[in-house]
Amino acid sequence: TWADLEPGCIESIRAGPMGKMFSPENFLFRQGGAGHNWSRGYYTSGEGVIDNVIEAIRKETENTDSLAGFQVPHSINGGTGSGLVSLILDKLRDYYKHKIVQTYTVVPSPNVCEIAVEPYNAIFSFHHLVENADMVNVLDNESLYNICLRTKHITSPRPVSYTHLTLPTSHLVQ
Fold it and tell me: Which residues make Cβ contacts (< 8 Å) with residue 16, sequence separation at least 6?
């Protein structure tokens, strides 16, 4: 299940080569976004989409023979990855108490910071990660950025895009 509080990222995944791997019902988004704010992702905007997210997860879990747990890739820099995912982790722990929850968490870096509130979003997220995740794989945003610049030699049109940063992470998860 893919969940976001704005359609842009979801639409790019759906339109790309990975989009065909997922059922169209598993792409969930809400217009408006979280405004790079943990509390909007957790309380206001997140509350509007969480029931649909949990329902999509429930449907997928019913199709499995032996569910071991969940893998949750996200970034805690912005409001969706920090706030909405904190809410999802809370709900996963409530509904699936004995299942493993493993996250791949991209943490903010002061050298690759786009918004001033990234450290605050991360701090609010850490509590939910500690309480609800059985394993947290921490990925440094700056290291991912450097991989793209030095190894992949990606420099234009913008130094590095979201898609470029997620490629090294997706290879880790596979």
Answer: none
Identify whether the C-beta of residue 79 lies closer than 8 Å to the C-beta of residue 121: yes
pLDDT at 174 (0 to 100): 47
β-bridge mates for residue 140, sequence order: 107
Which stretches within 16-84 are classed as H helix? 38-39, 50-62, 79
Check: CB of residue 100 under 8 Å from CB of residue 68: yes
Non-local CB neighbours of 96 within 8 Å, separated by 6+ positions: 61, 67, 69, 70
Q: Give how far the C-alpha of residue 116 lies from the chain's centroid of Cα atoms, to the nearest Å.
A: 19
If you ran DSSP here, which 8-state letter would residue 62 be given?
H
Distance between CA atoms of residues 81 and 50, nearest Å: 13
* Residue 143 amino acid letter: S
Helices 118-132 & 85-95, crossing angle to 10 degrees? Answer: 10
- Taking only the tens place, the pLDDT of each residue in 73-82 is 998 988 888 9
Q: Which residues lie closer than 8 Å to 59 by C-beta, 6 or more apart?
A: 25
Distances (CA, A) of 5 to 9, 67, 76, 156, 171: 9, 27, 14, 27, 25
